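TetR/AcrR family transcriptional regulator
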Amino acid sequence: MPRKAVHTADSLLDAAASIAAIDGAAAVTMSAVAAAVEAPSGSVYYRFPDRAALLSALWLRTIDRFQHGFLESLAGTPARDASVRAARYVLEWSRDNPVDASVLLAGPSSFGSAQWSGEARKASAVRQSRLEEALDALAERLGFRTRIDRERLALALVDLPYAAVRRQSHGAGTVSDATIDAVEDIVRRVVT
């Protein structure tokens, strides 16, 4: 009868995310992850052949966790309400998932995207395309046809909420209700 794995890929990625949130992506090493879960380094290498594989898996898992709800909110109706829900989702998800949010805020290059396998880079590009297509679909539904209107929408729904999260993460460490209200107000003005 085979032994049950003590250290799953998810438990190792959880440890990697925690290390990144506290000490930055550069601190995520195979030995640091092994130490964090009190496992031999072979346990990490068994799941991830090298550091690039570990970091790309962490990035892709985090993107998937975030995009699931974000893409759902973008598809909602009516389009103006979907815009506000999407911006709110970024803020609330970040507040509820501060460790994962710190991974997203760091960005893929912090996690060594240039060293990822071709397969991992392609998977990341697919996720980015999925996001861009969803934003384009919402822009269409809003009647935003010009490049500047679409850029304003992306700034309001992605960049503005992340800027608010980044600013608050340097302060109290959580996204306040006042920040959520302010971002929602700005988004409403952009999509009106």
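thats it. The CA atoms of residues 53 and 119 lie 10 Å apart. The chain is about 75% helix and 0% strand. bye
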